[in-house]
Structures are given as C-alpha cells and as structure tokens.
Specification:
The protein has four helices and seven strands, in the order βαβαββαβαββ. The two termini are about 25 Å apart. It has about 160 residues and is of the alpha/beta class. β2, α2 and β3 form a beta-alpha-beta unit. The structure holds S-adenosylmethionine.
C-alpha cells in the first residue's frame, strides 16, 4: 500500500497514527535521510509507537507529537511535508476544513495527500465532502486507490 507513495528522504506527516500500524513501515521506506512526523492527541498511543520504533532502530527518523484535538500545531513544518498519510482518522476530527487547511500549509507544492476512511463508519457522501474540503484547501484529486473496505483518494497540492 505504501510503496507507490513513499520515497527515500521524504518528510511524511501522519496525523492520527494510533499505535503506529503504518508508521514503522513508512519510517523504513523514507530511509535514514527521511522522517515521519506522527501527531496524535493520545499520549499513550504515541508512547507505544515510540517504544516500537526504538525496538526496530527507527527512532532517529520518527518524531512524535502530542497535539490538542483542534489543531496539529504544524507551523514549524510550513512548506516542508512531501506526503501526508491519513488513515481512518478524518471522520474523528472536529473540523475537516481546519484539518485540510493545516495539511495544505505544511505541504510543499506537489506534495501528496492520501486519505483513507473505513467504509463501515463513513458514508460515501461524507467521504466526498472530505475531498471537496481538500479541494478548497488546494488539493487536486489524482487517483482513487483500491484499499480493502476503505474509501480512498490520493490528492496532490497544487
Ligand atoms: C482509528 S485510529 C487510526 C489509527 C491509524 N491511523 C491506523 O489506521 O491504524 C484514529 C487515531 O486518530 C487519533 N485522533 C482522533 N482525533 C484526533 C485529533 N483531533 N487530533 C489528533 N489525533 C486524533 C486517535 O487518537 C487515534 O489514534
């Protein structure tokens, strides 16, 4: 799932990584010159993710940030992110509009945004509304990847 999108040296933003189901694989794919910035509002999730990253020797390229629910606090990353990987998170956020605006500010021109949402929890119309919010924030829909039991879209910042 990840290899078409993640390249060596990338800075990848992962909002809501939970315990890091994807994070460690992203960290392997970006290599020693890349990094993953994993932001979550649950400190316990990030603590577990950090322990696992340390065990796998990947902590040097995994940065964890505990954030408040209403902002990811990404000012220091403005224009630096190559890819945002957000899986099963957007429907939990208080404002999709604010979220995509923060991602857009953090993204380089041409950066990717992969959004996947669980079909069981998120109606097609609600997923399409998320994509419309992303379009208003400056992302163009590029592909609809097939991901099992998920709505999924890959967008690019213009
Ligand atoms: C369903 S889990 C998905 C975990 C992971 N992305 C995966 O697919 O395995 C949702 C995650 O989003 C985080 N989350 C929910 N709302 C958030 C918010 N407002 N800011 C930051 N993280 C949030 C939760 O703490 C949780 O870790």
């Amino acid at each position: 799932m990840l290899s078409p999108y993640v390249r060596q040296g990338m800075t990848v933003l992962e909002p809501g990584p939970g315990m890091g189901f994807f994070t460690l694989e992203i960290a392997r794919l970006v290599g020693p010159s890349g990094r993953v910035v994993a932001v979550d509002m649950q400190p316990r999730m990030l603590a577990s993710l950090k322990r696992r990253a340390a065990r796998e020797g990947l902590l040097d390229r995994v940065e964890t940030r505990v954030v408040s629910p209403d902002t990811m606090g990404l000012a220091d990353l403005a224009g630096r992110v190559d890819l945002t990987w957000v899986f099963a998170v957007v429907h939990e956020l208080p404002s999709v509009e604010k979220f995509v605006t923060e991602v857009a500010k953090a993204s380089k021109p041409g950066a990717g945004l992969l959004i996947a949402e669980p079909m069981g929890h998120v109606k097609t119309a609600d997923f399409e509304a998320q994509l419309q919010a992303a379009a208003r924030a400056g992302f163009v829909l590029e592909a609809r990847p097939t991901i099992r039991r998920s709505h999924a879209a890959f967008l690019r910042k213009v």
